[in-house]
Design goal:
Elements lengths: L16 H65 L2 H23 L9 H13 L5 H24 L7 H31 L12 E6 L3 E7 L9 E3 L6 E3 L2 H4 L3 E8 L12 H29 L3 H20 L3 H6 L6 H14 L12 E14 L5 E3 L2 E3 L29 E6 L11 E6 L4 E3 L3 E7 L4 E6 L4 E7 L8 E8 L2 E7 L3 E8 L2 E9 L2 E3 L10 H10 L21 H14 L3 E4 L12 E7 L12 E5 L4 E3 L23 H6 L4 H8 L3 H14 L6
Antiparallel strand pairs: 1-2, 2-5, 3-4, 4-9, 5-6, 6-14, 7-8, 9-13, 10-11, 10-14, 12-13, 15-16, 15-20, 16-17, 17-18, 18-19, 20-21, 21-22, 22-23
């Protein structure tokens, strides 16, 4: 091994105490210098931020002052524009009077259902008519159903101040009397038919079968003449509609009747409570007090005279008058929430306590009957007519048509426990009704006067054939129900101008997209899409008044109209009712020249504000790449927002170079074209009123 290598390099010199102190001093000076620079920088940035904030605050105060200065002027102009609402109400009242006059001079023999002596005479004379056949009763039912619809429409369309309590009682009494008499006539005509069952017997089966189809009624009658114990499957006219009957019925003197009325005369009428008018009056006074307080604050700040306050009060008073004039009681009930929170809570708790349901009872605030009522009856076969020396002799029972009790009240003579099994029933679902989910079967409880779901089993639904099969323990009226709020809340909506005084309202839900055209005082279903596929409906292309149109859509299963109870069953985006109502009125005023739509930011802002997206739209065709602007409205202030639908975070920041205004009308006036403003000012008053009514009925700002 060679010699070890010597260690190279010098030993590291130790830092002296003086050098160490010098380093620490330099580091301390550098740290202090950096801190000073950071402090100066922070102070500079803070001063700049405060200056920007001061400028923005000053600008904000200037905009607020400017808004306050012209508020009364803008509200006066809005008051003049909203003169279309009382004008439209006057036209509707004139139309009601004109229709009464037209009926009077028509002299077609039909009664005016609103005149008590006329409708009472009609009912009395019809009661005296005897021996009417089913065909004659069905023909007469068209007039009766028309009279009932007229009375219901009067109750819905007439404003509360034009409808006295005695009139409500009279109209509802006439409706109930006509409904009961019509069903009685069907029973009497069925008895007349069954007396002749032996003469109408089928040659092959030996039993009688009768089928009558009409636009309002479908009737199936089967009489068991042969009493063949092996004949247990009853099917009508080579269809799948019918019954599977047990042996005991197959060997009995019975008849089976399936009377499918495409209308519902079983469910109790919705009451029109006088308290509704009291609630509405309370709301009105509450709102007026709020407005007076606001006016006092404005007047104090601007030191203006009382004349301007009166003008603003008149404007708001017109809004409250219009609110009271909305005909649909459901819409009015929904706005009772304007009362103070404590009062509102008490009302809701009272409502909940009054709607305590028994087991299996159908909550008619949550569910709706659809497709009419199926009256299922097992009837005792009456004595048959017998030919004798050229005469037909028949025994007429004094008690009339009797129901066969199944299962019997006493079963002592029957040995087998399962001698009275449930009867299998197969029904056809009305083709003009849309069920978004499998329908639920409910039966009528005559004692409790309500629908309930017990006593029904083995339910199966074939959507393609529109056939529903189930087993029923006892016969009686049966109906199909669907959740009234299945299409709520809405996913989105859009209101777009089409032509002069004509708009298209599109409401998109989880299951469907509904397009509604509105022109003047009429509405029409433009199209329906189910699962992104077009669906045909008999309502398409039919123009109706708004209230009639809403009723027709509900009856077809297309309910997009919240009731006063809907917020108990739907998670909603609650908005202050006064703000919401003002927004609908002003959106209606602008609807002839501007398109409006759902904004995702409406769910983020508080309940005192609403946000919609807006764009000017003067052509009939939809814009390929619309340039939407977001507007925020709080009832007394409108502003354009800096954010758009693609922004990441919500902000109430004002869009640059824009100002506050007291109304949406004056807000859009800042950037609207001359042609657009001309279209707005020349809009038909009935058109604006109809658009406002549909917006109030759908409550898009709270239920989207």
């Amino acid at each position: 091994m060679g010699p070890k290598a010597k260690k190279s390099g010098r030993k590291k010199r130790k830092i002296t105490k003086a050098e160490r102190l010098k380093q620490l001093q330099e580091e301390e000076e550098r740290r202090q210098r950096e801190e000073e620079e950071a402090r100066v920088k922070y102070e500079k940035e803070e001063m700049e931020r405060l200056e920007i904030q001061r400028i923005e605050k000053e600008k904000w105060h200037q905009l607020e002052a400017k808004d306050l200065e012209r508020r009364n002027e803008e509200l006066e102009e809005l008051y003049l524009l909203e003169g279309c609402f009382p004008e439209a109400e006057k036209l509707k009242r004139d139309t009601r009077l004109l229709s009464q006059w037209k009926h009077y001079i028509q002299c077609d023999g039909s009664p005016d259902p609103s005149i008590s002596p006329e409708i009472n005479t009609f009912i009395s004379l019809w009661k005296e008519e005897t021996n009417e056949t089913l065909e004659e009763v069905i023909a007469k039912s068209k007039l009766v159903l028309n009279l009932i619809d007229k009375l219901k429409l009067i109750l819905l369309e007439t404003p509360p101040y034009d409808l006295e309590d005695k009139n409500i009682i009279q109209y509802q009494g006439s409706i109930l009397e006509l409904q009961e008499l019509l069903h009685l006539k069907f029973n009497i005509a069925t008895e007349i038919l069954l007396r002749q069952a032996s003469t109408l017997a089928d040659l092959d089966s030996g039993n009688m079968e009768k089928v009558i189809q009409d636009e309002n009624v479908t009737l199936y009658v089967w009489a068991n003449l042969k009493k063949n114990p092996r004949y247990k499957s009853v099917r009508f006219s080579e269809t799948q509609i019918g019954f599977e009957i047990p042996r005991i019925l197959a060997t009995s003197d019975i008849a089976l009747r399936l009377l499918h009325t495409h209308y519902d005369h079983v469910t109790p009428l919705c009451p029109v409570p006088t308290s509704l008018q009291e609630h509405t009056a309370t709301v009105t006074h509450f709102v007026k007090d709020e407005v007076k307080n606001e006016e006092a604050a404005i007047s104090k700040e601007l030191q203006e005279e009382g004349k301007q306050r009166e003008n603003e009060s008149s404007s708001v008073q017109e809004e409250e008058t219009k609110f009271e004039e909305q005909g649909d009681s459901e819409v009015q009930m929904s706005f009772v929430q304007e009362e103070p929170e404590a009062t509102k809570f008490e009302l809701e708790m009272k409502l909940l306590s009054e709607t305590v349901l028994s087991d299996n009872e159908v909550d008619l605030c949550q569910f709706t009957t659809l497709g009419g009522v199926y009256h299922l009856d097992i009837l005792e076969l009456p004595p048959q007519c017998k030919p004798m020396k050229g005469w037909m002799i028949v025994e007429i029972l004094k008690e009339g048509l009797q129901k066969y009790i199944y299962p019997p009240e006493t079963t002592e003579d029957v040995e087998t426990e399962n001698a009275f099994p449930p009867i299998e029933v197969t029904l056809e679902v009305q083709e003009n009704v849309i069920f978004f989910e499998d329908p639920v079967v409910a039966r009528w409880d005559a004692e409790g006067k309500h629908w309930q779901t017990d006593g029904i089993s083995n339910v199966s639904y074939k959507s393609e054939e529109r056939l529903i099969t189930f087993s029923l323990e006892t016969f009686g009226p049966v109906t199909l129900i669907q959740d009234s709020h299945i299409n709520m809340p809405f996913q989105s909506w859009e209101l777009r101008p089409l032509d002069v005084n004509k708009v298209l309202l599109t409401v998109t839900t989880v299951f469907t997209e509904i397009q509604i055209q509105i022109k003047e005082n009429l509405c029409m279903l433009a199209s329906i899409k189910l699962n992104n596929k077009k669906h045909s409906s008999i309502l398409e292309g039919k123009w109706m008044t708004p209230i009639s149109f809403i009723c027709a859509l509900k009856e077809a299963g297309l309910n997009i109209f919240p009731s006063g109870h809907s917020h108990f069953y739907v998670v909603i985006n609650y908005k202050d009712p006064l703000v919401e109502m003002k927004a609908y009125r002003q959106l209606a005023l602008l609807s002839s020249a501007f398109a409006f739509g759902w904004s995702k930011w409406n769910t983020v802002c508080n309940s005192k504000k609403v946000i919609v997206k807006l764009k000017e739209h003067l052509t009939e065709e939809p814009t390929q790449k619309p340039n939407w602007t977001n507007l925020m409205f709080s009832g007394d202030r409108a502003q354009r927002l800096k954010i758009n639908e693609n922004s990441e975070a919500f902000s109430e920041a004002l869009q640059e170079e824009t100002e506050f205004h007291s109304t949406l009308y004056h807000m859009v006036k800042d950037f609207a074209s001359k042609k657009a403003m001309e279209k707005i000012r020349s809009s038909n008053c009935q058109f604006i009123d109809s658009v406002c009514y549909m917006l109030l009925s759908t409550r898009l700002l709270s239920y989207s």
